[in-house]
Write a structure and sequence with these properties.
18 strands; 304 residues; 3 helices; four-stranded antiparallel sheet; Immunoglobulin-like
């Protein structure tokens, strides 16, 4: 006996079969309702005339795009077939708003999202084999996220989801001296124009990591992140100190370094100590001489 995993469908089929039997006035013994329901369900599962069935396939990995550049979002049909007369729709997965619409052999952009106007193009060089790409130019931070590529043929449709990862590599970092602190010197490292939030690494002359004293990543109005990081350098780390900032999505980094001399560190100079001691002794000697001089003058004046 035929069986179905979904009892709801089977119940619907039996109900439909019962209705059909009543409409055509079949006797109860002519065909069992269960058999009629199975036949009707099989008919309902057949492809609709005039509509081809297919699967839409997109890239398995997220698509990387840099701010200001172009992003290519490809998808294709399986099995291979022409998509020239199909409707191809690109939407943002979260909102279902239209990013780009191709229908009746041409672009239909009346309902396109405002932020994509003038920035999208459907690349159809291989549309005859069911392969298309959506090109988004002048990529911005807002383009980051999930998209859906949807093909529609009559009453049949299929789609695939894609993810775009936007990235930006910022400016060369700058190192500056902020002052003395806790027996060492405090250095600052700054940079702007990163996305997503970057990673900061300090290293000493031995290329060993130095933990940051503080880190912040302020966000600008354009959505890009800046970096402000500080570190305390001890006298044992005299030499070259570097600050590097890394984009985790692109695995790219920018760095700079500075040479730290021992003279930068606050410490007591032995010559300075000697000078202070000599001046102190000299001051005491001059003070005593002055005292003796004034006593002699007073003695002469008052015949003491």
């Amino acid at each position: 006996m035929l069986g179905y995993k979904n009892p709801v469908n089977l119940s619907a089929g039996i109900a439909l079969a019962t209705t059909v039997k009543k409409m055509v006035n079949f006797p109860d013994s002519f065909l069992p309702s269960c058999l009629i329901s199975h036949l009707l369900l099989l008919l309902l599962q057949l492809p609709i005339l005039g509509s081809a069935q297919f699967v839409v396939i997109g890239p398995a990995e997220p698509i990387l795009a840099q701010v200001g550049g172009d992003a290519e979002l490809p998808c294709h049909l399986d099995p291979t077939m022409s998509a020239e007369n199909l409707e191809v729709r690109w939407i943002r997965s979260q909102s279902s708003d239209i990013v780009h619409l191709y229908k009746k052999g041409e672009d239909q952009l009346e309902k396109q999202m405002e932020e994509y106007r003038g920035r999208t193009e459907l690349v159809r060089d291989t549309i005859a084999t069911g392969s298309v790409s959506l090109r988004i130019s002048n990529v911005t931070i807002s383009d980051d996220g999930e998209y859906q590529c949807l093909f529609i043929d009559g009453s049949f449709q299929n789609e695939t989801n894609l993810e775009v990862h936007v990235a930006a590599v910022g400016s060369d970092p700058l190192i500056h001296l902020e002052g003395h602190e806790k027996g060492g010197i405090r250095l600052g490292c700054t940079s702007t124009g990163w996305y997503p939030e970057p990673q900061v690494h300090w290293r000493d002359v031995r290329r060993e990591t130095i933990p940051s004293l503080s880190e912040s990543r302020p966000r600008a109005s354009d959505g890009l992140f800046g970096v402000v990081a500080t570190v305390i350098i001890r006298e044992g780390s005299v030499g070259t100190v570097s600050c590097s900032i890394r984009n985790p999505r692109l695995s790219q980094e920018k760095g700079t370094e500075v040479s730290i001399a021992g003279l930068f560190f606050p410490r007591t100079n032995p010559w300075k100590i000697a000078t202070i001691v000599i001046l102190s002794i000299l001051g005491l000697f001059l003070g005593n001489c002055g005292l003796v001089f004034w006593i002699k003058i007073l003695s002469d004046q008052y015949d003491l």
